[in-house]
Each structure stands twice: as C-alpha cells, then as structure tokens.
C-alpha cells in the first residue's frame, strides 16, 4: 500500500552512516579488514603502558593516601609508613607471582572470570566479572579525577570546571581507544615512560643528595604542623588506623589483573610475553612506590585529610585558600627545586599519566565484556569488533558509566577512591582459590615428576596469594565499608543481577526458538499462501510488487488499498480496470482516514478464516540516496510493518524500487571503493564486482 519508506532499522542505519561516515573516518581512521587483526597485536614495550599504566601511575597517589590516613594520629604516626609500604610490596609480589601462573594456565583472555567460572562455578565467575566491571569503571573515574586535580593546581580553568574537564578527558580517551589498541598504545607509551624515567631520576637524585652529598631536602610542607584528630592512639584503635592506611595503600595494586585479561592482545608467544610484562610492571611499581614513600619521610612531607583546619603554620590553621599538593609533587619540588626543568617535566608527566592510567580499564573492560557477551551474560553487540578491530561498544559503555560516576561525585578523587579496590580484591581472592582447584584437578592425572613439581610450586604460590588477598579483602571491607565501599558492593550486586537476567532471557529465547526433533503444528507446511500487495497509487513500484508477487505463485493473490480520499480511490479503480490488471483490487473503507488499523484488521481476518493459511504481505518501498529524502515520504509503511510483525502467521516482504537519487549513494560508495556501513568489517570483504540492481520496473 502506501509506499515510500524503508524499514525503520534500515532507515536508521542509512541516515546515521551517511551523516557520520566522513567525520567518523577523520576521527578514528579507515576501517580495517578482519584479516588484519594480527597487525594490531602488541609487543611488550607497547603492552606495558597499555595494560600497566594504572598500577604504574597509582604511585602518584597511593603514598599520599597512606599519609593522609596516618595524619589522623598526627606526625608521630608517620613512622609506620615504611612498614605499611613493606606490606604493600609483599602483597604486590604475591599478586604478580600468582597472576604469572594465571596467564600460563588460561591464555585465552578470560582472566579471573575464566579461572573462577571454570574451577568454582558460574556463580563465582559472575561474581568476579561483576567485581571487575565495577573496578574498571572506578579506575577511569579515579584516574581522570586525580589527573584533573593535579592539572588544576597549575591551570585555574581546569579546577574551576572539574566535572566538565573530567568528562571531556573521558571523551578524548574514548576517541583515542576507538582508533584501536595498537594506535592508542603507541600514543600512550611516551608519557608513561617519561613518567617512569622521571620518578626513577627523582629517587636516584634524592638518594644521591641525601646519602652521598648529605644535603638537607625539605618539602614545601615540612615546616607545617598537623593537628591530630586522635592524639596518642593505642591498642585496637591504632591497629584499625594502620589497617585502614594499608588498605588505602593497596590502591597501588589496581589494574594488575588487566594483563591476564589482555593476553590475546600480546604478540606470540602470548603467555610468556604477558608473564614478562607482569614481572616488569611489578618491579617498576614496587620500586617507585617505596622510593616515593622513603623520600616523603626524608623531606618531611605533611598531609592532612582536612588541610584547611588540620595543617597549622605557627599554630594557626592554613585556611581554605591553601592548596594541598600531592606527595609526589612535594617530593619533586624538594629534590629538584621549585620551578626547575625536571620538576616541571615530572609534574606534567604525572598529570598526563594519571589521565592515561584509565587506558588500563579501556583495554580490560571491553575484552571482559566481549567474553561475557559470548557467554550470553551481556548483550551480544559487546562481542563484536568495530571498524578499527577494537571492541567499540564496550569502550563506549565504559565511557558512559565512568562519566556518570564522575558527574555524581563531582570529580572528587578523595570520595571516589573510597569506593576503589573492593572489586579488585574480590576478583584476586576468588581467582587464586580457583587456581588452587585448577592445580588440584591436574595433579590427579599428571604422572610426570617434573611437571608435578612445577604444579606443586604453582599451587603453593596461588594458595599463599588466595590467603593473603582474602585477608586484605576483609581488611578493606572492614575499614572502607562506611567510607563508601558499600557503593562498590551495590554496583557489583546490580551488575550481577543484570547479567543474570540477560542470561536468563537469552536461555529462554534459545529454548523457545530451538528446532525440535518432532514436527509440531507450527512446523507443518501451511495449507495455502494468501498474498496481499499493498497499494496506494498505480505506479512503477506497485507494478514491480505485483509482478514479484505473481512470480511466487501464491494460492490467492489480491491487491489491497484503503479509501481515505474517495476521489483518489475512484481514480485508482478506474485506472486499474483500464489497464486490465488481472489481480483483484480490494478496497477498504476508512471513515476516520486511518490506514494502519483497517489493513491490520483485514489481515487478521484472513488469518482467522483459516488459521492454517499463511498470509504474505508485500509492501513496495522507495530507495533514496539522500538522508533528508527519508523525511519527505509517507511513514505509513513503517507503522504497518511494525504492527504486522506482531501478527502470527503473517510474512512481510519489502519490494524495493530505486529512485534516481539512489545513484548518488552508489557513486559515493564507488569513490570510497568500499561501503563502510556499520558492521562491514564484521561481514568480511565486499565483492565490488557484483552488479547493481537495474532499477527497472
């Protein structure tokens, strides 16, 4: 009947692709063929900044978090910081050693989720997945917010518009990652390595000045005093404070698991390269963390949770105008001197690497999302790769969730960091327990003595890791729950419930549409096929639809029109008879000038007359070449199709007719040599030799 439009989904794809194709290519580059996936694999020198930028950059704020918590008991509590740092170092080495076993045993990229799912069951696997998804979102929010705060100390506009600046940075990182893992990795490698080199230079120069030259280095806050909220803590209160400081310092471990999720992105040999990258990351992070803590003690850095009132200069609070710089910034100023080249370089590299630390999540979240989608716990769209062979849908989803979190918490890293690390220690603990069961299972069948010795050693490492990270998880929950950790737990519950519901839906649909061995009534061939061609006017699209319907030899064929304007209907009937068309024309009256309802009721009537008959409805459609032309044609076809799709036993067929303007779209496609419609990469190469439709009636 009324023609003039393509189906809604086709219309949407065409309109969006035509409007965004050129800017999309400018922003993220040309689409890559599926067979070029191997070219995007990463060498170790690029994989390190891609997957380890989060734990490497966390040394910029983790030492400060330790001192902030200890300041509650005053400066006297600072002498516990080396012991807390030592505990964090032991934990880091334990986790790194444990994950080196993971990447060898499970190199497919499932990481903690695959380990827990395989060895502990689907519920444990889904718990780990929920924890990691929450942690990845928080990684982006915390890293970006912290970077904005560091940059804001030098640029007033940034600190005055923290939320806007943070969201803009998230959008920029999203765009960079949509260009592909390898391209973004090359871009991120330089500032990451500059930051690492700058921190090592600061540690080495500070040690030389302090130990060899005997110089006295003082941080900008060295002359300040701290007003202790709880002076002279002892017993359980002191232990609780130290545990809370330790849990804050554990922020240095976030992102360690990303390498185990990203094993497929490494060049061959994948497992060995991933294990080497893990060891290198652990060594760098531990050295920088301990070095900064040591220099902070040597230069008398002072930090307070409420600097305006708890930091005193000559017994007087410094006031609201005081800006408390991060520990790494204060140490750099003491070692290199204020305003010096290396101080400015390290400050700039620190701010930049904190932004780029979010890239760990941009690689971990989409990979995990793809695996979960493959297991039907997330929408299937997350499993497919985009034009640049990155998991584009997962990247966009992560960016949206992180931007929402930044907006809700006003880009305040102090508030956000309280939500942090709960999820990662849940995944650490369950993953290591799963690895212990993995080795137990293999030891039952392995008979080679050398292989058994390796398995015993690996099991011991994973067992120690499970015990240690389990204890840390208890500490984190006990010390951080009321400070915001409950929000992270709530997020895990939401993710778990959502993914469970998605899996239940997919399972239900799969069961519903599964082809049964027997042949129930709905599989039996229909008794008859009754075809209906919808007509509005007698023109070429209508004649093509009639010719196509005749070709299929239905048991009964008729044309159907709705009388909205009696004069037009009379003219149509006269023209129909004049041409001698041998298909009966059925005219439906519509006193209220409706088109959709009369057609739907008529088709349903055909079905009710004989439920074993199938009704085939043919709708002519225009194919146009410009997006704005879609707005100029009748929308009745869209509404009709939408309603007919819900009518059992009714088949809807669109019969396209190419208007002259469609040639413009063909010419544009030829100029690009390849039609880069959404999903073109996933469909494979296009056969450009295929002939185009002639467009003749």
Notable traits:
five-stranded parallel sheet, three-stranded antiparallel sheet, 697 residues, Rossmann fold, Amino acid/polyamine transporter I, alpha/beta, 8 strands, elongated, single chain, disordered C terminus, disordered N terminus
In the CATH scheme, what's the topology name of the largest domain?
Amino acid/polyamine transporter I
Q: Give the integer mean of the pLDDT values.
A: 79
Q: Mind telling me which CATH architecture of the largest domain this is?
A: Up-down Bundle
Find the count of extended strands (DSSP E, 2+ residues).
8
CATH class of the largest domain: Mainly Alpha
Question: Low-confidence runs (pLDDT<50, min 5 residues)?
Answer: 1-20, 24-29, 32-39, 673-697
Shape summary: elongated
Largest β sheet strand count, sense and barrel closure:
5 strands, parallel
The tally of domains stands at: 2
The H-level CATH homologous superfamily of the largest domain, spelled out, is: Amino acid/polyamine transporter I
N- to C-terminal separation? 17 Å
Strand order of the largest sheet: 6-5-4-7-8
What is the quaternary state of this protein? single chain
What is the helix fraction of residues, given as a range?
55-70%
Helix/strand-derived category reads alpha/beta
Rounded Rg? 33 Å
Percent strand? 5-15%
Number of helices: 27
């Amino acid at each position: 009947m009324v023609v003039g439009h393509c189906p809604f989904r086709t219309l949407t794809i065409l309109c969006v692709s035509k409007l965004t194709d050129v800017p999309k290519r400018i922003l993220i580059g040309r689409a890559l063929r599926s067979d070029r996936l191997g070219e995007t694999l990463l060498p170790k020198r690029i994989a390190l900044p891609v997957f380890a930028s989060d734990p490497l950059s966390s040394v910029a704020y983790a030492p400060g978090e330790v001192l902030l918590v200890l300041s509650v008991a005053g400066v006297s509590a600072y002498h516990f910081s080396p012991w807390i740092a030592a505990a964090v170092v032991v934990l880091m080495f334990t986790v790194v050693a444990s994950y080196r076993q993971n990447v060898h045993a499970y190199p497919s990229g499932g990481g903690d989720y695959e380990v827990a799912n395989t060895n502990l069951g689907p519920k444990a696997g889904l718990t780990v997945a929920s924890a990691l998804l929450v942690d990845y979102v928080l990684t982006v929010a915390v890293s970006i917010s912290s970077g904005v705060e560091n940059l804001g100390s030098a640029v007033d506009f940034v600190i005055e518009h923290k939320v806007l600046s943070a969201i803009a940075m998230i959008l920029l990182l999203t765009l960079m990652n949509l260009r592909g893992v390898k391209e973004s990795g090359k871009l991120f490698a330089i500032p990451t390595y500059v930051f690492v080199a700058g921190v090592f230079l600061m540690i080495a120069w500070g040690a030389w000045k302090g130990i060899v030259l005997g110089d006295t280095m003082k941080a900008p806050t060295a002359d300040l005093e701290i007003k202790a909220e709880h002076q002279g803590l002892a017993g359980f209160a002191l232990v609780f404070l130290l545990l809370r400081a330790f849990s804050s310092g554990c922020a240095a471990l976030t992102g360690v698991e990303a390498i185990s999720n990203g094993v497929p992105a490494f060049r061959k040999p994948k497992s060995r390269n991933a294990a080497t990258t893990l060891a290198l990351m652990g060594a760098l992070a531990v050295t920088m963390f301990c070095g900064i803590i040591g220099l902070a003690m040597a230069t008398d850095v002072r930090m307070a949770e409420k600097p305006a009132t708890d930091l005193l200069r000559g017994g007087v609070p410094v006031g609201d105008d005081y800006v408390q710089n991060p520990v790494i910034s204060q140490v750099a100023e003491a070692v290199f001197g204020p305003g010096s080249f290396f101080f400015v370089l390290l400050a700039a590299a620190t701010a930049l690497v904190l932004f780029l630390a979010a890239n760990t999540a941009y690689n971990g979240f989409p990979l995990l999302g793809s695996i979960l989608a493959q297991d039907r716990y997330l929408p299937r769209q997350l499993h497919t790769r985009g034009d640049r062979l990155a998991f584009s849908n997962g990247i966009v989803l992560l960016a949206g969730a992180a931007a929402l979190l930044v907006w809700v918490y006003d880009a305040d890293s102090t508030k956000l960091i309280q939500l942090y690390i709960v999820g990662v220690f849940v995944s650490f603990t369950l993953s290591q327990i799963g690895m212990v069961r993995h080795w137990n299972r293999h030891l039952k069948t392995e008979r080679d003595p050398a292989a058994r010795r390796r398995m015993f050693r690996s099991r011991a490492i994973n067992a120690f890791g499970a015990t240690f990270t389990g204890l840390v998880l208890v500490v984190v929950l006990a010390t951080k729950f009321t400070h915001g950790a409950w929000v992270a737990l709530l997020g895990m519950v939401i993710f778990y419930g959502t993914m469970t519901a998605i899996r239940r839906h997919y399972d239900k649909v799969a069961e519903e549409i599964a082809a049964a061995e027997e042949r129930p009534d709905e599989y039996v061939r229909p008794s008859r096929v009754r075809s209906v061609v919808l007509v509005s006017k007698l023109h070429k699209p209508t004649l093509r639809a009639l010719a196509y319907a005749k070709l299929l030899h239905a048991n009964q064929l008729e044309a159907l029109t709705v009388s909205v304007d009696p004069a037009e209907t009379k003219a149509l009937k006269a023209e129909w008879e004049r041409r001698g068309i041998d298909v009966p024309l059925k005219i439906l009256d519509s006193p209220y000038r409706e088109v959709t309802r009369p057609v739907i009721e008529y088709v349903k009537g055909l079905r009710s007359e004989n439920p074993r008959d199938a009704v085939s409805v043919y709708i002519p459609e225009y194919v146009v070449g410009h997006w704005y032309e879609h707005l100029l044609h009748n929308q009745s076809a869209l509404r009709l199709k939408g309603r007919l799709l819900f009518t059992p036993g009714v088949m809807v067929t669109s019969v396209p007719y190419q208007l002259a303007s469609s040639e413009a779209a063909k010419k544009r496609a030829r100029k690009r040599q390849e039609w880069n419609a959404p999903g073109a990469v996933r469909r494979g190469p296009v056969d450009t030799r295929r002939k185009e439709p002639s467009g003749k009636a």
